[in-house]
Design a protein that fits this description.
five-stranded mixed beta sheet; 243 residues; 21% strand; 11 strands; four-stranded antiparallel beta sheet; 7 helices; Ubiquitin-like (UB roll)
């Protein structure tokens, strides 16, 4: 079903069920975000993607990543009010992730170079290491990889993300999807000495090698795929191009 509405006064069309941020970006309108990825369910965690929605003559600010398009609405992607609210949100995020380059860069675009707020001094807050609690790692692990190794733990200042009870997640296959989608690059993903390491989760797995001795992926990860999809036992041993 086609939906028609306007973005910054421009008439646009979209399919029912699409989000405002998806349609806006498709039409070339810039809406910043730190927690949105088209591959996973919208979460609205960072609040940076705020826009103004005018519906039935009434205006409100809302996150665009989880607001579905509707016939006849008017969307404004930037205004004085939006700029003010985004700046405040980014100042709060900057306080918790002061060394995260993507956060600093985006905050600077809204005139925020230093946060007036103090970083939480709890042990958990210090351990987060520039994690902004966007939940992208949890969602990609659950919805795409389907391993469910990560989850949120605790509440308030003591909230964190990781394995059960914030211990090393034993079901993590070290696929790297979490590190790939992380907006602040705070997870850490390296391969060395025949091991793949996901630093934030304290997960270290030995690599499987093909018949030429080249590393493929963690053995635990490949075993998971073989079991999940019923693949032949020797499927990973064959070198590319071999028969």
């Amino acid at each position: 079903m086609t939906v028609q509405f306007t973005i910054n006064g421009v008439k646009v069309e979209a399919q029912k069920g699409e989000s405002v941020i998806e349609v806006a970006r498709r039409y070339g309108f810039e809406i910043p975000s730190l927690c949105h990825h088209q591959a996973v369910t919208p979460y609205g965690a960072c609040r940076v993607c705020l826009v103004e929605i005018v519906k039935g003559g009434r205006k409100k600010l809302t996150t665009s990543c989880n607001y579905e398009v509707l016939d006849g609405i008017e969307v404004v992607t930037d205004s004085e009010a939006i700029h003010k609210h985004r700046a405040m949100v980014l100042e709060l995020i900057l306080a918790e992730a002061p060394d995260a380059e993507p956060v600093k860069k985006l905050a600077a675009q809204y005139g925020v170079n230093v946060s007036r707020f103090e970083r939480s001094d709890t042990e958990m807050a210090q351990e987060r290491h520039d994690c902004i609690m966007c939940g992208l790692c949890v969602r990609v692990c659950t919805e795409i990889v389907e391993v469910n190794a990560l989850a949120f733990n605790g509440r308030g200042y003591n909230r964190g993300v990781g394995g059960p009870y914030l211990e090393a997640p034993q079901s993590c296959i070290a696929c790297g999807a979490c590190a790939w989608v992380c907006p602040t690059d705070c997870i850490g993903f390296v391969e060395e000495d025949g091991m793949r390491k996901v630093l934030k989760w304290d997960r270290e797995l030995p690599m499987e090698k093909d018949e030429n001795g080249r590393p493929i992926a963690p053995k635990f990860q490949l075993h998971y795929f073989k079991e999940k999809f019923g693949l032949p036992a020797d499927i990973y041993k064959k070198a590319p191009g071999s028969r």
